[in-house]
Amino acid sequence: MTKDGVEAVDIDTSRPHPARIYDYLLGGKDHYAVDQRAGDELAAAAPEARIGVRANRAFLRRAVRYVVADGVRQILDIGTGLPTSPNVHEVAQALAPDVRVAYVDNDPIVAAHGNALLSRSGTTRIVLGDLRDPGSVLDHPDVRRLIDFGRPVALLLVAVLHFLADADRPAEVVGTLRDALPEGSYLVLSHATGDFADRSAAQAVYAKATASLNLRGHAEVERFFDGFELVEPGLAQVPFWRPDAPPPPRSEEIGFYAGVARKTA
To answer: pLDDT by residue (tens digit) across 24-48?
Structure first.
């Protein structure tokens, strides 16, 4: 039995999944009771969690507008999560209708919802793939049909790398993706951190989920931008990266770093 081309047996609803927890915290509807319980535990452990995920989403919108305004017309969004309007392609195509967006996620539920949303669009695709195997993402035929790696690409790794443990070699993963991008491409990245508060209780919530939460400090996150040139204001907390509105309450506590960087060679 399939739904939108995804085998139902592949969908595990017995454990919370980061994409569905994120959806719940954003106020979405595409999650299960197990995800809601995890989200409530997370909000209790980190009271600014709901504010933080919304600030992270707002950063994503600002960053997409920035790279599109600079002429990028291709976006590879890995770890996209469940559709949340406005989605990346909606933000990008509001500025330039010819922008093409390839979404990638490892959750079959995300793929099913994405296929339903994008089925009539020739400029967007969603691919079931795993960031831990970047070569298979880059070589996926649906990605290759949409993304021309001979032209600048905006690579989005937003709120996803912290679900890779050190054993997954996240720096090597980013390096593989970076090396596939031509000059003029961008990396848009955000990452959870414990620099502003003790988040061990939040990590305990994700220990029961399908992916652990691996917090990293400023210097560790900044190293993911090796081979890129950070644009101003550099690596900052998400509410303070080129804000277009007053920052939300408790912004100083939000445990997300964010940055946008350009590949210059």
So the answer is: 999 988 888 999 999 999 999 888 8
